[in-house]
Amino acid sequence: MKIRSLSLTNFRLFKRLEIEFDDHLNLFIGDNSEGKTTILEAIHFLSLLTSSLATNDREVVNFLCLEEAVPVARIKATIEKKGKVHRLEMRLILNPSGNDSFRMRKELRIDGVQRRLYDSAGFFNSVLFMPQMTRIIESGPDERRRYLDQVLSQSQPGYMRALGNYIKGVSRRNSLLKQLAEKGGDMNQLTFWDELLADKGSQIMYERIRALRELNILANEHHRRLTSGNESLKINYKPSLAFSSHTIPKESTIVEDTAEIKAQFLSQLLAKRREEVARGITTIGPHRDDLQFMVNGVDVHVYGSRGQIRTVVMAIKLAEKDLFRERWGELPVFLLD
Q: Under DSSP, is residue 257 helix (H, G, I), strand (E, B) or coil?
């Protein structure tokens, strides 16, 4: 997979930028704050359909264009995928919603045809590595979940849609939990949302388990090469659900389908209803899972040195590259900052 050209309009500091790329290696050299990282962010945006750096996609829209009637940022690119050339265009549209505020709407076009975002993530594959990505290990579980979700959004069709529906379901269920705590009512109202969370959540957890089995092998191979064979890496999945022993994804087993995960999810949601009504939040599910990175049996989040953490991040990023190649049949664009 290759990127041939990139055009930015009102993206970050760039009012307008046009770039043509070489077929092989491309280097950007310049002083700080000249936009080198922004170029990489924009390319990666076309893979995830969201920014991997911003806390909110509105942040990437150049503030100078807010004076326009309808502020719009654009990312356009020409890519080559399996020998065919495609044109991608992402529009980030800020629609005025009163009181000097805006509501963002995103539109994606592939070869001039508008496409649904959920179904188009991963059409163009890229892997982004930058120094601040050590936060995957150094920060909390939300960063590690975000990392894994971004990998799966590119590598597994339908994952982003399932994740989006799941997150919306958690939000609606939490609202109902708070309502039941404040006003009372029939707790069976939760049944619909329990079923939705178990259905979408089991899909998410199954794909996480399956991807981590592949990433573990690939990342450990790279990590051993990076450390001259002196260290081994293992990524442990830490689900918030209390799986039975034969459901936990050990090296010698694999979850054959989502039925058992869904059944256990429903059972545990039912068992925790009173507790969750009292707390007003959904306490179990993929939105509370975590990953553990072990080097020679030691948790690097707790005990790892800065050098070990950087090495682990490089290993998992190289593993992403291999995973995409195995699943899609060609190498992704590799972005190094």
A: coil
- Measure the CA–CA gap between 28 and 11, rounded to whole angstroms: 18
Q: Is the pLDDT of residue 100 over 80?
A: no
Assess contact for 64 and 15: CB atoms under 8 A.
yes
Quick one: what percent of the chain has pLDDT higher than 90? 85
Euclidean distance between CA atoms 18 and 92, whole angstroms? 18
Residue that is written with structure tokens 């939490």 in the block? 174
3-state secondary structure of 140: coil
Residues 6+ apart with CB under 8 A from 320: 127, 151, 215, 332
- Using CA atoms, how far apart are residues 31 and 250, in angstroms rounded to an integer? 48
Nearest to 330 by CA among 158, 49, 128, 123: 123
Q: Say which residues have a Cβ less than 8 Å from residue 44's Cβ, sequence separation at least 6.
A: 52, 126, 128, 335
CB 117 within 8 A of CB 89: no
Query: Is 0.85 topped by the overall pTM?
Result: yes
Q: How many helices (H) and strands (E) are present in the chain, helices listed first?
A: 9, 11
Distance, CA of 254 to CA of 294 (rounded, Å): 21
| Six token digits for residue 181 | 């705590």
